[in-house]
Amino acid sequence: MNPTIALFGCNPLAMEVARRLSMGHTRFIMVDNETALVDTANKEGLDALQLDYTDDDALRSVGIGSHIEGVFCLFTEDSENVFLAISARALDPKLRIVAVCQAPDAAPKLLAAGADKVVDPYEISGARVHDLIQRPEVVELLEQTLFGRQDLNVAEITIPQGTWLHGIHLSILRKVMTQNLLLLGMVDLERGNELILSTRGIDHKLDYGDVLVVIGARSEIDAFRALVERASPPRRAREGTRRPF
Questions:
Q1: What is 136-239's CATH number?
Q2: 60, 111, 137, 240: least CB-packed within 10 angstroms?
Q3: Is 138 in contact with 199 (CB distance < 8 Å)?
Q4: pLDDT (tens digit, 9 = 90+) per residue, 72-90?
């Protein structure tokens, strides 16, 4: 069965992404142009191959432009990820491309190159440290998931048409969340495709099509999804806002 995701890079970050995909039973292949890194990934039991990512025919050979649905640009050099994003986008205009950036000023370049989303690992790490210091419930969440059942998942939940959340501020949603989840942030379509971390303290107004990003156990995520998709607001939401429903 053909893989649906291509991970470019066999560095430690890419290896961790690969392990997460394996846990979720997602079909993928790892690609790198350095033999030593590919050998290390293979020794870890991961499906990795050596390939020249600057060659369009080589990219086609792993399924870009045919059966590959998504590409993760995880090289340690921003220039390599920019080049890869340009090449992959040219081969498949509908391909979903996620890229990691090493320098903050590289994010606009990666988006211009064709990436759908850009992840800044330093910003996310900083946000997690902030949460661990400022929000002790996050520590409890990590203990119950990452260090307990290890059922820790990241989910994107799109606010659908007809939901009670349209026009509601993020602070109201927080008040009615009973699920044991970390609300990492959101993608506000009015501001583009950038992930806005919740630690920035901005009380965004939610609209149809916005995306909420949460971390937690699968069952908790499913319960939160049901909350988001409700047509009528929970009682506590009606009490927490003067906005008529």
A1: 3.30.70.1450
A2: 137
A3: no
A4: 999 989 999 999 999 999 9
